[in-house]
UniProtKB/TrEMBL annotation:
One of its GO terms (molecular function) is ATP binding. Alpha-D-glucose 1-phosphate binds at residues 108, 173, 188-189, 206. It holds the Pfam family Hexapep_GlmU. Involved in the biosynthesis of ADP-glucose, a building block required for the elongation reactions to produce glycogen. Catalyzes the reaction between ATP and alpha-D-glucose 1-phosphate (G1P) to produce pyrophosphate and ADP-Glc. The gene is glgC. Residues 308-411 form the Glucose-1-phosphate adenylyltransferase/Bifunctional protein GlmU-like C-terminal hexapeptide domain. The record marks 68, 107 as: Could play a key role in the communication between the regulatory and the substrate sites. This is Glucose-1-phosphate adenylyltransferase. Belongs to the bacterial/plant glucose-1-phosphate adenylyltransferase family. NCBIfam families: glgC, PRK00725.1, PRK00844.1. PANTHER family: GLUCOSE-1-PHOSPHATE ADENYLYLTRANSFERASE (PTHR43523:SF2), GLUCOSE-1-PHOSPHATE ADENYLYLTRANSFERASE-RELATED (PTHR43523). Homotetramer. Keywords: ATP-binding, Carbohydrate metabolism, Glycogen biosynthesis, Glycogen metabolism, Nucleotide-binding, Nucleotidyltransferase, Transferase.
Amino acid sequence: MATDRRMAPISRDTMAYVLAGGRGSRLMELTDQRAKPAVYFGGKSRIIDFALSNAVNSGIRRIGVATQYKAHSLIRHLNRGWNFLRPGRNESFDVLPASQRVSEDQWYAGTADAVFQNLDIIEAYSTKYIIILGGDHIYKMDYEIMLQQHVDTGADVTVGCLEVPRMEACSLGVMHVDERGRVTDFIEKPEDPPAIPGRPNMALGSMGIYVFNTEFLADQLRRDAADPQSSRDFGKDIIPYIVKNGNAYAHLFSQSVVRSSNESDAYWRDVGTVDAYWQANIDLTDVVPQLDIYDRDWPIWTYADVTPPAKFVHDQDGRRGSAISSLVSGDCIISGGSLRRSLLFTGVRVRSYSMLDHAVVLPEAVIGRQARISRAVLDRGVQIPEGMVIGEDPVLDAKRFRRTSTGICLVTQKMIDRLAL
């Protein structure tokens, strides 16, 4: 982790603004009742906790979160887990739901509009810089380093970017840069992403992280709001305009990624599909995971229930509470069941003779006796009936549950209830 800090960190004169209003429809039923940033991750966190923790760990103490789609779960989490910032210490944490503040018939029309509608709040804090963040990726990053580059280059906007396989960049903004790191072209979500020169299989993708001088951003948002042709989006409108008419610079994620001694690669994941979400959670059960969530030098802050310890009971052949290469959160009781390469969130109950293999189980789910579950994601509160088998019969799974092309089953309580009809 970088430790070279100036006496007066730029982060102390910066506001972090997190865009957390999206559904994340590719997560299917996981986002039926919650926005993507509120989806659980890693045993006790939510996805949004990574961006917020990066901000706090980077020294930023002014934070705003814009919400929109089914925001109750997210807002409740933010109010419970992120209420430690205090105005008396020149700190603030604002939850900014879409509330028709510009007109009575206008919600947030796009990512840029989600900032524009709250410009009065942003400007009232009088911070010199603002960093725009997405609330739906898993990574650890020191924003102070990116802020310092922004100041040193005199950029109008600095865009966080990372090198990705070219065809994986279809869902990202893709950039061309010159030898100085200046962005010369920016294309939002291209069907055929342009390659990095000399590297035909790789592209330079936007992370959706932007640093601006606050006054400059306010001017750009007002200009964009007056343009009837604009879609009010950073990737489609604001950034391409600045690339064409101003100075946009790229900041490589590899320059500010935070690694513990146990992390070798620059870890960044978009967990926006059921397959990617399942894989990123299961990866945490590796002996040495690519993402070190045990790094005390860069903690992932979150709201944590006050819970008793996890408990394993019974010691008979076939009925032994056990877990191999698994993560088990507080208030879980493994009562004569067995886990292998599985991740359990808070308050899960695993009954006798049941077996879980490569399963991600969200809070308060109950696994009935003699159930067998493999390669699955179980939503919060799911009650798995006694003897149910998931993950062994592809045809039956596809009829009963959401089954991906790679064989991962997503199970919700509504799906279970339909089976009883």
